[in-house]
Every structure is written in structure tokens, then in C-alpha cells.
Amino acid sequence: MVKAFVPQLAYFEPKALEYPLGKALYDKFSKMDIEIRETTSHNQVRNLPGDNDFQKYRHAKSTLVVGLRKTLKFDTSKPSAEYAIPFATGCMGHCHYCYLQTTMGSKPYIRTYVNTEDIFEAAEHYMEERHPEVTRFEASCTSDIVGIDHLTHTLKEAIEYFGQSQYGLLRFVTKFAHVDHLLDANHQGRTRFRFSINADFVIKYFEPGTSRLVERIEAAKKVAEADYPLGFIIAPIYLHEGWREGYQTMLENLAETLPSKAKADLTFELIQHRFTAPAKRVIQKNYPMTKLELDESKRKTKWGRYGIWKYVYTDQEQEEMKELFMTQIPKLFPKATIEYFT
To answer: Which of 12, 99, 201, 325 gives a 20 to 30 Å CA spacing to 68?
Structure first.
């Protein structure tokens, strides 16, 4: 089993120590003999260990910066939610295809924000604007927050905050199985706990540093038994030799493991593999030995929301994907909702 994340190096912004969580993390890391440094801002984090970009990238992925979230204007998060709620940025996983590689740019270290009350206050304003409609908040747009929450408990605080909310719902997704501390949270059914799952081939070759499929499914079973609304993101759906059998086995294993009560309110989100030209350059720099197929000539183009072309599968390939998932999910999970395919 992948061990729970522990940073090799922790940076603290000075004002972070004025908050209870910042002080608690400083004390915790001091006792764990983690190297601690001070920085005036995360933008000043420099001189990470390593003789070249390859080594520095890997050290950055094991570096945690503890600071304040200054920008409290939330990004939109379609189609999964109305807004992204920012508790953390960056991820300790090494998924070759991940879009964070390009959005994080030269700063792949992980950041956690200790001014949670400010973030909740901003969320209140967004809920007030939309009330009486319910507002959904996505907590994993810029990170896999479950991967660090055993250290920070920020996500647990958010789950309990939204558990008391009348017009807000929380959502997040993870590739990690370290969920035990979240099982007793007072969620009141207002948080949808989702797992990113994939065929064993994809996890083995393209998702190093994350929990294996069997571990994610076992964690999902625990979450279901804790009465959380449950969901799964199958992403990226990646065409490889034997892909039909791989995804069929994944779905069957999921159906066999989940308790029957979980199947009454399941959601699935389906996202095909895609990449951009800038992403390809970054992926090949960070993971020069990757087996990830990035041949533009085999794809069709699709205009992206950020003003750049994406390379997605051909229409025929997309139809083949849909045929598998749109047939097998209703068959194995007749009460589940397929929220979208993109």
C-alpha cells in the first residue's frame, strides 16, 4: 500500500503561524524531524534539492508550503460543480497525464492554506448570491486534497462545515485510500466523496505514487459504510491493448465490493484522455520514459475553454467508449447516475 504522504521539506509563510492550523502543523513537523524553512511567499521557494530539473521536480513534489490563501475569488468548476473551493494546491502523485503539470508550471510543490475561516466566509457569499438554489463546491480542482488531509484535517473541517450548511454541497475526488480519519466526520449527507478509478494498466504505468485500484475500491467501501454519498470518476479513459477487458474488470470488481446501500445513490463521471501541445512538452520533460500515447495524428482536435486546442479521441473511438460504459454501468449499477461524458 502507498504510504501516507509526509513532506521531506516544509516551508512556512510567517503569517501562517498566526493561525491555529499553521502553528499546529509547525509543531507537528518539528516533532517529526521534517526540515522546516521560512519563506516570505510561496513564490520565493527556491533552491530545492537536486542537480537538474528532473531531480528538482521530484523534490518539489515532496515539498509542502504552509501559507494563506489570498485570492478568495473562486474559479468556476463546470461540469462537476458551480465553484472550486481552494484549500490546497498541488499533488504528491506522479500521474503522467495530469493537467496540473501545466497549470502548476515551475511550482509543482504542494501548498496548504491555513486561513480556512476566510475561505468559508467567501463560500458563504457565493451561496447567498445563488440562494435559494443549492451551490456545489469542488475541493479537488487544483489538488488531491485527501492526499494531505491526514496531516491538516482541512478537508474534514470543510465536510463538517458543509454538513451544517443549508444551501451548500461539497464534492471532491481522490486517488488515495487514506480515508480513515474522514469516516467519523459529521457530513449529514452533504458531501459527495468520489474516487478516481481506472483500469489496472493505466494505474500501473501512468499513476505512480497513488493507491492501487483494489485499495481505492476498499476505501470506497469504507466511505459507503460511513453513509457518504459516493461517486466515481473514470478518468482518463485511455485506449490501450485490452482496454475493454480492463475497464470491464474494473467495473465488475467495483460492483462486487460495494455494499448494496451504496449502489442506491452512485454517480459516475466519464472523461476521455486528452492533451494539449504545452502539456505534451511538460509531460515529456518530467517523465521522459513515459509510455503515454501522445501522437497528435491519431487524435481529433477540440477547442478548450482556456483558448487552446485539445487532442481527444476520434468520434468512432469515443462512440466505442460510450458503448462500453453506457451499457455496463446501468447493467451493474442500475440505480446509478452517469453525470457526463467528456
So the answer is: 99
Is residue 2 predicted with pLDDT exceeding 90? no
Full-prediction pTM beyond 0.70? yes
Do 62 and 8 form a contact (C-beta atoms < 8 A)? yes
d(CA 177, CA 10): 23
State the Cα–Cα distance between residues 126 and 138, nearest whole angstrom.
13
Per-domain boundaries in the chain? 9-341
Which pLDDT tens digit goes with each residue over 111-121?
Answer: 999 999 999 99
Residue 106 has pLDDT above 70, yes or no: no
Nearest to 112 by CA among 144, 87, 76, 81: 87
Reference 44, options 70, 25, 27, 67; nearest CA is: 67
Most distant pair of Cα atoms in the chain: their distance: 56
- Which residues neighbour 109 within 8 Å (Cβ) at sequence distance 6 or greater? 11, 42, 45, 48, 60, 61, 63, 64, 65, 90
**One-letter amino acid for residue 322 of the chain:** K
The reply to whether omega before 79 is within 30° of 0 (cis) is: yes
DSSP 51-110: SSHHHHHHHHTTEEEEE-----PPPEETTTEEEE--SEEB-S---TT-THHHHSTT--SE
Q: CB under 8 Å to 259, separation ≥6 — which residues? A: 221, 224, 225
Measured over the CA atoms of residue 283, residue 220, residue 115 and residue 84, the dihedral's sign is positive
Take residue 252 and report the three cell numbers written for it: 465488475
CATH topology for 9-341?
pyruvate-formate lyase- activating enzyme (3.80.30)
| Cβ pair 311, 299 in contact under 8 A | yes
Cβ–Cβ under 8 Å, residues 72 and 124: no
Burial of 161 (0-12, 13-18, 19+ CB in 10 A): buried
pLDDT by residue (tens digit) across 273-283? 999 999 999 99
Grid coordinates representing 37 are 524553512
Cα–Cα distance between 224 and 260 in angstroms, integer? 9
